[in-house]
Amino acid sequence: MTFKYNNVYVDNTSTVSGVMESNGPLSKFYDKSYNDYYMGMKTWELAEMKLMQDSIDIVLEKANILKKDIDLFIAGDLSNQIVTSNYVTSSLNIPYLGIYSACATSMESIIIASNFLEARKVKKVLVSTSSHNNASEKQFRYPVEYGGPKRKTATFTVTGAASMLLSNNINKIKVESATIGTSVDSGIKDVYNMGGVMAIAAAKTIYEHLKDLKREPEYYDLILTGDLGMYGKDILKEYLKIEYNLNIRNIDDSACMIFNINDQQVYAGGSGPACLPLVAYSYIFELMKNKKYKRVLLVATGALMNTTLVNQKETIPSIAHAVSLEVNDDIS
After folding, report:
1. Closest listed residue to residue 55, CA positions, set 257, 254, 278
2. For labeling, which of 24, 40, 178, 275 is most exposed (least CB within 10 Å)?
């Protein structure tokens, strides 16, 4: 399902990173970075809440508005019952929608916000997402203190948070269109192969987006997927060729950009709900503001599993949502 938008713009964004990300190649583009996993808090879960709260404070300061000026807050994360978002919103006093699409949550939130804005039901919407490596590892796999070995296809959950303020106010970057993905199941059961799990969903959403809008891949300066990692990225390219006859050259994956994969111990690259927005809302947006990129398709990918079903040896379904961003040439 694909939507076109005429009146949805990005007002401001913010990005807050953890220690590994601040040592990565994109560190200078983040608004704020921490040099440890606790961020001055007692637990990793509280640290993740601080990450999200920081990202909200920063984007509001950039926009020079107050919390009361926001009509709707949409947020999600990886913690059980999206507890990070739920706790953060309790201090905001803003109407709230908590959502979950795993690592595809960021684009889902933009799609929901854009539909509200296009319908003129609201004027300003704040969307946020976060992830924390140690909190996620403890929940989905094993506590990091166990030091359990991982396969080379594993990815490293990003520690960070990102927020975006969307409105009807004409601005430099426009939300041009979006495609809601379809959940697919490739039959994979391995929690250490999330790239393989999600690549099929990414391919399907990219294909549907291009088909619905009658576009060629070259329409975009960049098609950026979420967190497939180096192996999932290769699977995606191959699957697009075989299944959809699409040989896409202008495609990259944020999981392969956020870390120095060869130098940092991150296995196949990054992952987590914060992975794509941390790259896109900072580095990619900077390129768009400088008009080095004019059209970018962001495709966030998520594995829709929990520990209970994984331990019961069930296969892992996945989802991908796409958002098309374009530079507004009328604004210098």
Report:
1. 278
2. 40
